[in-house]
Design brief:
The structure is a homodimer.
Chain A lengths: L2 H16 L5 E6 L1 H17 L4 E5 H6 L9 E6 L6 H12 L3 E6 L5 H5 L2 E4 L12 H16 L3 H9 L3 H23 L6 E4 L4 H16 L5 E3 H4 L13 E5 L5 H14 L3 E5 L13 H24 L15
Parallel strand pairs in A: 1-2, 1-3, 3-4, 4-5, 6-7, 6-8, 8-9
Helix pairs in contact in A: 1-6, 2-6, 2-9, 6-7, 8-12, 9-12
């Protein structure tokens, strides 16, 4: 992690130490950024007694939770730093006295200025993965957790993030051939569902909403592995495609159950098992977190492959950024 | 509300009064039952300082939140009372010392026995809507809130629930013609998305997962109105159907924004505006709650109509209840 990013995170951590109490942590953003933050809520929920919640930013603004006050911590994220709803949410939270941390790729943006503790992340090729959005988010989370729920593992996890660049390259290489094959076999599909659980739910949410719907105009819906059997599974059929992220965390049983059932009835299951990821050299306690990030890297390979097969660039938009809405 | 139900709720309320503190409220269930409970989490989140969360039951079991303890309140729901994951979750919570309330249509079922405070609800025709699952849930919620966050409005809201039967009939009558027309126009559709926000999110979740996917094998995905513009909206096109529940609550602006945009590009928007519901005689503070319930009643009309047009009975299942999974 670059020193600049580390310093920005440290700033926020020092401020957190000053807070007598934290009554709640609110993760607030839109679309893909909201999805990225979902992992944060997951970790706080399973590892601390600090209540944590995720909101799409405009609901946070228009229907603000009763507990938001000067004891709250609000973490937001916007790549451009200009997402209006997220900027508004951060301003509103800061006005209410909450401690505001915002992640963005754009220093000096509206969000950057709205938050008390802005934290930058890099983007593009030739940058370290531990300096990209998820690397920085997890770095921030582990650092905050060292204050809120001190455990040795946070220090270990923070260090392990530095392996991300290398592991990402390995994972991409590992899945390249399969992704090209899958893309050829699924390029005519009109709908592809995503399924996942636990810390990976954010990833399958953004795969459905952003990768498929936004960037490919492929219909999609995301399904929680636990709820699959209580409704959604009835659409399963030989020709219905699903993308399942199979966790190595506590909810693996839920994902395994989905795999056991769905593979009997659908010929179009893409199962991305985190156990297959190149995590051998990673400390045990850090594996679920690195796996969550690497699953996103792997999914991107598949999406890039299908975009190529379909002649539909990931950059194409017909509405987003094209008009006011 | 029948005296039996009222007494069961009172039992739970009295027990709650004995609790020194409530550190969290967990709403735990599967599928449609989980969707019903989502409104509970919404209300607690906007009206109290008691942290509240929703879980699909199996994730609650396998990846239990750190804060679950003897100060917690766990509210679960299963129509049959036999949903294994929900029964397991309730047992586990009770073992941990949490106060467990469970809603079910089946007295003496596994869930009924697992919970410390079981509460029954009626089902079928010829029963009062205030005694059905949502009427009982809201009755329970308002009663618990009178203890946790006393406000005059809970008493008012509790009384207004008694108008549900009459208002449900009126709403069904009001929408019958439109539902039959919509069903004819949409019976060939392979996918119908659902969109909503605020207290209605649970309703659009269950419309997608249960009404469309489970009971009609129509592909679907539910989208939060706030997040629509951050990905999903890119699939909007003249022939893409959406069902939008337009709130009368604080998030109406979010839903209005969806309507303004989507109606420009899709010819297949079904917009169910809660402002059109027969709520004139209802007390102001109770309107958002009754509206949430009535939207579900209205949606059911549309689903029954399309089921008839498609020759696909709402009772048909190919997997659910047909095999082990």
């Amino acid at each position: 992690m670059r020193k600049e990013h580390f310093d920005q995170i440290s700033c926020a951590v020092e401020a957190l130490k000053e807070k007598e109490t934290v009554n709640a942590v609110y993760f607030v953003a839109c679309g893909g950024s909201q999805a990225v933050l979902m992992a944060g809520q997951y970790i706080f929920d399973k590892e601390t007694n600090v209540p944590s919640h995720v909101y799409t930013a405009n609901e946070f603004v228009y229907d603000t939770p009763a507990s938001l006050n000067e004891h709250s911590l609000v973490i937001s994220c916007s790549h451009s730093g200009n997402t209006p709803e997220t900027v508004e949410a951060t301003r509103m939270a800061r006005e209410k006295g909450a401690m505001t941390i915002a992640l963005s790729n754009a220093e000096g943006s509206e969000l950057w200025n709205a938050a008390e503790y802005p934290v930058h992340y890099d983007w593009g090729k030739e940058v370290s993965d531990s300096d990209k959005n998820k690397g920085i988010l997890y770095g921030l989370l582990f650092s905050l957790l060292m204050v809120l729920q001190p455990k040795e593992k946070w220090d270990v996890c923070l260090k392990e993030l530095e392996k991300l660049t290398e592991l990402s390259l390995m994972a991409k290489e590992q899945y390249r051939e399969q992704s090209l094959r899958w893309a050829k076999e699924n390029k005519r599909e009109k709908i592809i569902y995503t399924i996942g659980s636990g810390i990976n739910y954010g990833e399958v949410y953004s795969t459905a909403m952003c990768w498929f719907m936004e960037m490919q105009w492929i219909h999609s819906g995301c399904i929680h592995s636990g709820d699959y059997f209580h409704g959604p599974f009835e659409v399963t059929d030989y020709d219905v495609p699903f993308l399942l992220v199979k966790s190595i965390g506590n909810t693996r049983f839920l994902d395994q159950r989905v795999e056991n059932f769905s593979t009997k009835f659908s010929n179009k299951m893409l199962i991305l098992d985190q156990q297959d990821l190149p995590l051998e050299g990673v400390a045990e306690e850090a594996k679920p977190y690195l796996a969550a990030i690497l699953s996103g890297v792997v999914i991107r390979e598949f999406v890039e492959a299908i975009a190529f097969e379909r002649g539909h660039s990931l950059d194409v938009r017909r509405y987003m950024w094209q008009m006011k809405y």
